[in-house]
């Protein structure tokens, strides 16, 4: 009897539990679905902002990859280029190319006679056009004395007009180009003499005050050299420090102090590292200012803590059973670390390195302090030549008043992003190769 | 019972006190442990353990969880060195040589005293590399063919060769649990040790794999001395010749396995074996 009672009690309990669970189920499910929906909304919002950002940058940058060129029939008049008949390279470099261009322009618009007007007419051409012409002649010296059609860059204002970025409807006084200039340009377009072509200049030259002559190459090379120094210094030092601290260092007060300091260094504002670089590398050691060498050193200081911290946590996450296995068959500490622990920790360490290097690539504040913000026209060829870097170049162009720099700023951002993606892609490829986990 | 000189012998064999009863000593021992104490920081994990391990014998270390049997096992090849704050006092001799002597390199010790762990832990490399690693770092093979020979011999000895001979380049971690554990045993014997320590080698395995490992342990006894920690008393009874019962960091009873399981002398041993606790 009592047994039966107990049985029924238990079975009742079972049903009760079942009912309770069932009753609570919709609420649990709703909670779960709500959470999923929040997550989805966050991701969609994030993606939306990313699309807006990229859309904005790309739509602005697009036109910077094209530049308007003018077709000029230039007569390489020997009496202007080489009046003394010396026939050497020296004369080709020092010849009066602006005079050649003026003649060609006058030939296009013979009706322009007044001095002021003539100057405006020649202003259609970029101030870099004579150099382009010189380079062209040096490549084709046989053209001396002949007439040839040459494509030369036009001034940034003309370029902007062709790209419809100057509003023709506003009053003449509020416009960079006068009505008669616009008339000339329209005539040139009608003649098929103005054409938008791929902007080689942008990828081939350094900075310039003239938007149509300004290029990203100087900053790109500067970034490349700076990151090279950073990678060469911070990767070995960071990885070695992480391995030593995690695997070999005795744990005592000193290692505790070092650990705390490394963690603090990772949180130091980057501009402080710039001040440090200025005081130590430039003022004390006398290294050249504005150079990728000093920039790389400063960024190394900034990147090291990140790499060390990431490296240590990667080493920590290697299961102890692997260490025990190696030690158990008589591998020394060093063999254990280098044969077994490090290969397993490598992907994690590389991830830390990627994050650190990406941060270094996008950094501008500390580099301002060591003079990499200077206006540098030449493309750097070595680690000690003055140069600038991509983020600083973007900052400089964004600050310029010429309309032509607006699109170039966006284009430079695209180049920076492309650099970043290339670098990260390479690192991820390397990591995948290391990551041959079984 | 032989009683070597200058080795202290427990004064009395009282049933009630936590002092070792049974045959601590054996003829011509491989390992001698005298007055071994282990501390983890403040914790006194092992207290005054005296124990001999004979040649070509399997000794089973049994006892409830946390009794210090694994700690004791790890003292025998100094794996405890890697644990922070672990201190070992007393004397442990392998073939008459103190393994905690100052001049001794633990690398040579661990080549002599191999270890198999609770969870199979093959390296994330190929089967061949797993077995070849030990001989390679110790320089046991003069050329590639000799190395291959060692690998084959070790895998045969571990009873794994026929199953995996066509998959030597496959990852060791892709094997089943029992195969992985036998691979770990092959890896250990590839270094040709004198003693093999096994820390609950079958606790993560199913009964069939366990039976294979037990058979293997029995075979390996011909060439090696084996100390095995186990939670399974049936396993201890099946594979070992001698058994040591640990309780709260002390060896309570040592003796022939058959005797311990049929006729335990100490109350604690009897309670544990009959399943009253543990």
Automatic annotation (TrEMBL), chain A:
SUPFAM superfamilies: MetI-like. GO terms for molecular function: phosphate transmembrane transporter activity. It is found in: Cell inner membrane; Cell membrane. It is a multi-pass membrane protein. Keywords: Cell membrane, Membrane, Transmembrane, Transmembrane helix, Transport. CDD domains: TM_PBP2. PANTHER family: PHOSPHATE TRANSPORT SYSTEM PERMEASE PROTEIN PSTA (PTHR43470:SF5), PHOSPHATE TRANSPORT SYSTEM PERMEASE PROTEIN PSTA-RELATED (PTHR43470). NCBIfam families: 3a0107s02c. Belongs to the binding-protein-dependent transport system permease family. CysTW subfamily. This is Phosphate transport system permease protein PstA. The lineage of its organism: Bacteria, Pseudomonadati, Pseudomonadota, Gammaproteobacteria, Methylococcales. The gene is pstA.
Automatic annotation (TrEMBL), chain B:
CDD domains: ABC_PstB_phosphate_transporter. GO terms for biological process: phosphate ion transmembrane transport. Keywords: ATP-binding, Nucleotide-binding, Phosphate transport, Transport. GO terms for cellular component: membrane. PROSITE patterns: ABC_TRANSPORTER_1, ABC_TRANSPORTER_2. One of its GO terms (molecular function) is ATP hydrolysis activity. InterPro entries: AAA+_ATPase, ABC_transporter-like_ATP-bd, ABC_transporter-like_CS, P-loop_NTPase, PstB-like. Residues 31-273 form the ABC transporter domain. Pfam families: ABC_tran (PF00005). Transmembrane segments: none annotated. PANTHER family: ABC TRANSPORTER I FAMILY MEMBER 17. This is Phosphate ABC transporter ATP-binding protein. The lineage of its organism: Bacteria, Pseudomonadati, Pseudomonadota, Gammaproteobacteria, Methylococcales.
């Amino acid at each position: 009897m009592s047994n039966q009672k107990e049985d029924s009690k238990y079975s009742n309990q079972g049903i009760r539990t079942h009912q309770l669970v069932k009753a609570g189920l919709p609420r649990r499910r709703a909670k779960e679905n709500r959470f999923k929906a929040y997550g989805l909304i966050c991701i969609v919002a994030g993606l939306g902002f990313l699309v807006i950002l990229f859309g904005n940058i790309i739509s602005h940058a697009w036109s910077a990859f094209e530049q308007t060129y003018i077709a000029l029939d230039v007569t390489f008049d020997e009496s202007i280029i080489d009046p003394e008949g010396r026939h050497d390279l020296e004369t080709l470099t020092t010849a009066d190319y602006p005079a050649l261009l003026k003649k060609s322009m006058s030939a296009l618009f013979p009706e322009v006679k007044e001095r002021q007007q003539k100057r405006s007419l020649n202003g259609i051409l970029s101030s870099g056009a004579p150099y382009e012409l010189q380079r062209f002649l040096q490549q084709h010296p046989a053209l001396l004395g002949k007439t040839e059609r040459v494509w030369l860059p036009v001034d940034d204002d003309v370029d902007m007009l062709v790209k419809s970025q100057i509003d023709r409807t506003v009053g003449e006084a509020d416009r960079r180009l006068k009505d008669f200039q616009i008339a000339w340009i329209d005539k040139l377009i009608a003649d098929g003499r103005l054409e938008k072509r791929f902007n080689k200049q942008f990828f081939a030259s350094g900075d310039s005050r003239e938007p149509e002559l300004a290029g990203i190459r100087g900053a790109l090379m500067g970034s490349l050299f700076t990151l090279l120094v950073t990678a060469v210094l911070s990767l070995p030092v960071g990885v070695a420090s992480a391995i030593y601290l995690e695997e070999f260092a005795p744990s005592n007060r000193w290692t505790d102090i070092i650990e705390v300091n490394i963690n603090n260094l990772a949180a130091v504002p980057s501009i402080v590292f710039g001040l440090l670089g200025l005081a130590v590398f430039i003022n004390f050691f006398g290294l050249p200012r504005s150079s990728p060498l000093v920039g790389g050193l400063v960024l190394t200081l900034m990147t090291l803590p990140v790499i060390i911290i990431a490296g240590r946590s990667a080493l920590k996450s290697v299961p102890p059973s692997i260490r025990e296995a190696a030690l158990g068959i008589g591998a020394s500490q060093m063999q254990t670390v280098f044969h077994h622990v490090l290969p397993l920790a490598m992907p994690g360490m590389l991830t830390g390195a990627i994050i650190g290097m990406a941060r270094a690539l996008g950094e501008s504040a500390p580099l301002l302090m060591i003079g990499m913000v200077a206006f540098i026209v030449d493309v750097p060829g070595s680690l000690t030549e003055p140069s600038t870097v991509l983020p600083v170049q973007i900052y400089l162009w964004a600050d310029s008043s010429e309309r032509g720099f607006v699109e170039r700023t966006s284009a430079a951002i695209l180049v920076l992003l492309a650099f970043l993606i290339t670098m990260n892609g390479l690192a991820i490829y390397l990591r995948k190769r290391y990551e041959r986990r079984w | 019972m032989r009683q070597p000189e200058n080795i202290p012998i427990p004064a009395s064999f009282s049933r009630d006190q936590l002092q070792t009863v049974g045959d601590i000593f054996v003829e011509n021992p491989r390992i001698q442990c005298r007055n071994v104490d282990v501390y983890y920081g403040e914790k006194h994990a092992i207290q005054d353990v005296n124990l001999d391990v004979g040649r070509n014998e399997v000794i089973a270390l049994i006892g409830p969880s946390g009794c210090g049997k694994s700690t004791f096992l790890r003292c025998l090849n100094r794996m405890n060195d890697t644990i922070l704050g672990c201190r070992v006092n007393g004397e442990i001799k392998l073939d008459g040589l103190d393994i905690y002597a100052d001049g001794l390199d633990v690398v040579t010790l661990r080549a002599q005293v191999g270890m198999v762990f609770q969870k199979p832990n093959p390296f994330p490399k190929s089967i061949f590399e797993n077995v070849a690693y030990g001989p390679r770092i110790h320089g046991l093979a003069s050329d590639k063919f000799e190395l291959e020979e060692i690998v084959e011999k070790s895998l045969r000895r571990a009873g794994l060769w026929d199953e995996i001979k066509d998959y030597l380049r496959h990852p060791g971690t892709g094997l089943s649990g029992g195969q992985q554990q036998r691979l770990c045993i092959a890896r250990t014997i590839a270094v040709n040790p004198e003693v093999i320590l096994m820390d609950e080698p079958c606790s993560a395995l199913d009964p069939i794999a366990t039976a294979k490992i037990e058979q293997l342990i029995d075979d390996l006894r011909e060439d090696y001395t084996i100390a095995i920690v186990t939670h399974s008393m049936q396993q201890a009874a099946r594979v070992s010749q001698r058994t040591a019962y640990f309780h709260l960091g002390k060896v309570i009873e040592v003796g022939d396995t058959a005797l311990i399981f049929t006729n335990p002398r100490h109350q604690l041993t009897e309670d544990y074996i009959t399943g009253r606790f543990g």
